[in-house]
Amino acid sequence: MSESFMEKVTCPYCHIQHEFKKWILIDTGSDPDLYDEVRSGETFKFVCPSCTSTYDMNYPFAYHEPENRLFIMYANNSEDYEKARRILSGEVPSEQEAINEILGRQGYKKRLVYGREEFYEKLLLFDRGLDDGVMEIVKLIYGENLAKTQKEDLFDAVRYFKDDEKEDGVFFLMKEGQRVGKVNIDEKIYDWVISNYFDRIIENISDTFIVNFFWARNVVQGRQQ
Description:
5-stranded mixed sheet, 2 domains
């Protein structure tokens, strides 16, 4: 079941305080409307009743999609990231019993993400039935090849998002959170990664909850997670 609380926030435009619902646990099983609202960003949008200004509220939360056995803990700063890491690793329990109960379930994809870019990327990958571990290795390959032909500081991250012009997923080159370019994805590379790294991916992904660039690099280099 979803958990939330009301918090007073001050509009940065008119400086008047209003209450805003912050989510501790977003559960699409008990609140199916949140499935689309999370993806559209509506869940995190504050509209000031006084001046109608709109801005995004960025805060830590947990996301649970029971129908797909997916659980994601989201952090937007290093302190909350470390706190979530300790909860997911079992070092400390969560203050929310519902989260502890979910973490005890078997057969779940459990992930820890930092920032909205990574969160929405994970959702899109899982929505499309793609393996995030495989895709992280594909991103690593693309990124390394691009770095050889482009200026080294052109981009600092590669993200999988839906193309603004079509439904296909593309890789966006990111620089300090901004899109600075895009690259079409060759599906053959995805299949090649599966055929060449399948055993390593299975070996390294079953018990981990951090699947990102660093995870992919260790898998490719043959390091145990």
